[in-house]
């Protein structure tokens, strides 16, 4: 079968590899669509990061580069392994793409996403969604309604990142949320916040991303700091209180600074983006306002609730798909577009079977 294989920085190859074996306790999935994530882009441009370098196998998967990529994917079950009796051939599914040790519990309330040596399918090994087929352990496979188109279902994984950030924030319906950055995660997070009954203020510089926020209807207010006085506008919207909760989605220090300034006393600032460099923060403001600064990574038992948002029609994922490509065009139409024209691309999704 065809698969996109990461060898090293700047070196991803479309190759023929053996189809996976569906062993006991696993589910064989024909991949329908797989999204290209910012993490994949960082691996291509700066890696290996999450991907174990050649000769340095991951302690759980036992694999190292070359690695099959792709962790945002949907598909159809073609085979179930021995012992799997609650999933059927033909079911539509998405995958929660974790690699964690077998003895780590995924029960409610367990922080399995923070367990030692955690990694992701499609980065740390165990196949990937940028291939025609994959076999995944049952506990990471989530059935979805056939009412969700499989192309949109490929966005449930990044939507779950936004859902977990919402949970981490402790925000409630009626709160005002300030989202710094209208990239893919910022927009998907905003869609979760709107679905949960929050008022959403989105800050963004890019004209195309502002247009996408308007088109998708995920923000009540869209503010460009180069065009308006951000503090004046946020205070006007919040009756001089400040935002109840803020989400940093850019890894840009100026954005983090503005969120600290514009969050109300005793409010919460959640850092959602992955930072590849150190950041500074106005600690005096954090102290004097008793702000909570919280990190968030991935998701933890959030897929079920995220899927329900989509099944109930509370989140429409179609507007966030900006391009559909085949696997052979992964670099030329996928990665190169995201590198050179990322403002116009929210989610590029790949069909490995075209």
Q: Which descriptors apply to this entry?
A:
7-stranded mixed sheet; alpha/beta; about 25% helix; about 350 residues; 18 strands; 6-stranded parallel sheet
Q: What is the average per-residue confidence, as pLDDT, rounded to a whole number?
A: 97
Residues in helices, as a percent range: 25-40%
Amino- and carboxy-terminal Cα gap = 12 Å
Uncertain runs are: none
Largest sheet: 7 strands, mixed
Helix and strand sequence: EEEHEEEEEEEHHEHEHEHEHEHEHEHE
- What amount of the residues lies in strands? 25-35%
Structure classification: alpha/beta
Number of strands: 18
Envelope shape: globular
Total DSSP helices:
10
The whole-angstrom Rg is 20 Å
Show the helix and strand layout.
Layout: E1 2-8, E2 11-16, E3 26-35, H1 38-46, E4 67-68, E5 72-80, E6 92-95, E7 98-99, E8 119-120, E9 133-137, E10 141-143, H2 150-153, H3 156-169, E11 176-180, H4 184-195, E12 199-203, H5 207-216, E13 221-223, H6 230-237, E14 243-248, H7 253-262, E15 263-271, H8 283-288, E16 292-295, H9 303-311, E17 321-326, H10 330-340, E18 347-351
Helix pairs in contact: 3-4, 3-9
What does this structure look like?
This protein is α/β, with parallel strands linked by helices and 354 residues long. Helix content is 26%, strand content 26%. The protein is built from ten helices and 18 strands. It has helices spanning 38-46, 150-153, 156-169, 184-195, 207-216, 230-237, 253-262, 283-288, 303-311, 330-340; strands at residues 2-8, 11-16, 26-35, 67-68, 72-80, 92-95, 98-99, 119-120, 133-137, 141-143, 176-180, 199-203, 221-223, 243-248, 263-271, 292-295, 321-326, 347-351. Strands 3, 5, 6, 9, 10, 17 and 18 form a seven-stranded mixed beta sheet that branches. It has a six-stranded parallel beta sheet with strand order 13-12-11-14-15-16, with helices on both faces.
């Amino acid at each position: 079968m065809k698969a996109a294989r990461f060898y090293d920085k700047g070196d991803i190859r479309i190759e023929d590899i053996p189809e996976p074996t569906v062993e006991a306790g696993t589910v064989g999935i024909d991949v329908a669509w797989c999204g290209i994530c910012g993490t994949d882009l960082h691996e291509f441009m700066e890696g290996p990061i999450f991907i174990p370098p050649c000769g340095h196998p991951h302690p759980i998967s036992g694999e190292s580069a070359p690695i099959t990529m792709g962790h945002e994917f949907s598909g159809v079950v073609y085979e179930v392994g021995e012992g799997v009796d609650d999933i059927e051939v033909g079911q539509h599914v998405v995958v929660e793409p974790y690699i964690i040790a077998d003895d780590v519990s995924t029960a409610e309330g367990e922080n399995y996403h923070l367990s030692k040596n955690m990694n992701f399918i499609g980065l740390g090994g165990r196949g990937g969604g940028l291939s025609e087929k994959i076999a995944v352990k049952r506990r990471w496979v989530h059935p979805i309604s056939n009412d969700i188109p499989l192309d949109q279902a490929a966005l449930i994984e990044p939507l779950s990142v936004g859902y977990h950030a919402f949970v981490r924030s402790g925000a409630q319906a009626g709160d005002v949320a300030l989202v710094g950055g209208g990239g893919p995660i910022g927009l998907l997070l905003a869609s979760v916040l709107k679905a949960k009954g929050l008022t959403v203020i989105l800050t963004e510089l890019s004209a195309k991303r502002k247009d996408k926020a308007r088109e998708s209807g995920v923000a009540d207010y869209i503010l460009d700091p180069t065009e308006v006085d951000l503090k004046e506008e946020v205070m006007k919207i919040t009756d001089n209180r400040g935002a109840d909760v803020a989400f940093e989605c850019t890894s840009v220090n100026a954005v983090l600074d503005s969120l600290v300034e514009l969050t109300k006393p005793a409010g919460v600032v959640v850092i959602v983006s992955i930072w590849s460099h150190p950041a500074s923060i106005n600690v005096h403001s954090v102290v004097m306002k008793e702000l909570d600064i919280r990190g968030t990574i991935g998701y933890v038992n959030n897929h079920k609730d995220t899927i329900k948002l989509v099944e109930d029609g509370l989140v429409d994922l179609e507007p966030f798909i900006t391009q559909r490509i085949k696997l052979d065009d992964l670099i030329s139409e996928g990665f190169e577009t995201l590198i050179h024209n990322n403002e116009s691309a929210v989610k590029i999704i790949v069909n490995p079977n075209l």
